[in-house]
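Q: How do we represent a protein-ligand complex in a form that can be generated cell by cell?
A: Start from the inputs.
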Amino acid sequence: MKKAILVYSITTFMFTAVFHKTFSLALFLFLFSLGSFAQDDRPSDYLSKEFHAGRRAALRELMPDNSVMVVFAYPTRTFSNDVDYFYHQNPDMYYFSGYKEPHSVLLMFKAKQTDAAGNAYDEILFVQKRNAKAEQWTGRRLGDEGAKSKLGFKAVFNGEEFQKFNIDFAKFDKIIFDRFPVDIPVSKNDSADLYHLVQQFREKAAIPDDYSKDTRLDTKLYRELTGRLREIKTGEEMDLIRKAVEISCQGQNEVMKTLRPGMSELEIQGLHEYVHKKYGAEEVGYGSIVGAGDDGCILHYMENTKTKIGNEMLLMDVGAEYHGYTADVTRTVPASGKFSTEDKQIYQLVYDAQEAAFKILKDGAQWSDAGAAAKEVIAEGLLKLGIIKDKKDVGKYYPHGLSHHIGLDVHDRVYSSTLKKGMVITIEPGIYIPSGSDCDKKWWGIGVRIEDDALIRENGYELLSSFAPRKPEDIEKMMAQNSVIDNFKLPPLQSAEKKKAF
Ligand SMILES: [Mn+2]
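Then emit the C-alpha cells for the protein with manganese (II) ion bound:
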C-alpha cells in the first residue's frame, strides 16, 4: 500500500474512532503502523541473526579446548579535520555478530563461563552505548538492548563495562585474536573507544608489546579459523554474493551501452556506481578501476583522471558491495564499440586463458593448476604474436596471479589451497602492454583484463557473472544498444566563465 493512502486511511479511522470512544485502540494501531513503516522502507534481506549465531557455533567447534577468541571492530579513520571516512566494519566482527558499529569487542569462549551472578555464557558482546545527542549527529546506534533483540545475543554490555568485567584470561590455554591495528585513534575522554577497549584487553590478558612469538597468544590461529570458516560460503551468503555480482554486471552492461570516445574515466566510474546504488548496493568493495589505454595497463589504477577517453580499450574493474559482500568483475571494451584487429587478438588470448582455467575448476582441484593453465595460454599466445621472444618472459605483460577468493573482503580470508565446493573465486587473467614496451608499437597502450566470479561446485563451477557479455561479438552487440543514460544531459557549468573574476 502506498504510504500516503495508508496515512489517509489511518487518519480517517482515528477520526471515526474518536466518535466511537475507542481512541486508545486507534492510537495503538496508528503507532503500530508507524512501526511497520520504519521496517518497510529499509532493506529486508540482511543476514539473519540465526546466520551469525550459526557462524559462532561453527567457530566454537573448531576452537581448541579451554580457549577464547576476541574480535575487535575496525578503527574509524579521519578523512579531513573532523570528518571521518565512511565507516566499514571489520568483516570478522560482521560475520560473527552482524554488528556494524565501531568501538566494540566480541568474545567467544570454547566452554561455558559463569559470571559473578552465576549466569552461564559462552559469548559476550560489548557495544557503543546509546546517546541521543551523539546519535543526532552521527547516526543511530543499536545499543545493548538493540544488540539483544536484533542480533540475538544474550550477554551484551556497553563498552564502558568492559574495563571492570571480570574475566580471568590467565586460565585459558589459548587466547586467539588478530594482530592489532597499529594506529588506532584515541579519544582521551572516552574510556570505551576502540583504543581503550584494546588497551583494557591487553592489560587483562597480559599481552606484551611483542606477542608474535607466544603460541598461547595466537594470532596465527585466528587467521586459520576465520579462513576455514569464511572460505566456504553458506546459502545466505550466496544470496548476497549473487546479488552483488549481478548488480556489478548490470553496471558493466549499462556502461557498455552508453560508452563512446570523449567521455571521462570519472564519469564512467560514476555510472557504474550509480547503477550499483540504484539496485541497493551500499558501497564498492574496493576502489573502482576505470582506465583507458595506458591507464588500463596500471593494475590498480584508481585515479580515473582521463577527461577524454580516446578510441582505445577501456578496462573497468568495478565491484558492488551488497550488505557486506563484494563482487569483483572486470570487463575491457573498445570505447568505439568495435574491436580493432590488435585489440581483438590480445582480447582473445585473455579470453582463451580464462576458458583454460575454467576447465580445471571443481571440488578437489588444485587452485595453482588453474593459474598454470591460464599462464601457459598467455605465454604461448604472446610468443606466437611476436610480443615476447621467450615464454619465460610472460610475466612482463602478465604480472599478476589468476585468482583470489571473494566474500566479505575482495581478497577474502582463506585457509586451503585446494578448491572446495562452496568457495567463490575470481578468474582474472590479463595482458598489459604500456607504451614504450619492447615490442611492435601497434600493441602499445592495450591493457586487457577479463574477470569473472565463479562458485566452485562438486563437478565443476557456476559462472556467477554471466550477466555481462565476455565474447568480443557479444560485447559489440551490447555496445550497439541504446542506454537510458544516453539522454542524461546536464547543463554546462557557469563557474568556468567566472574564472579569476574574483
Ligand atoms: Mn580481482
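The pocket of manganese (II) ion is lined by residues 328, 404, 426, 428, 451 (CB under 6 Å). The first strand starts at residue 67 and ends at 72.
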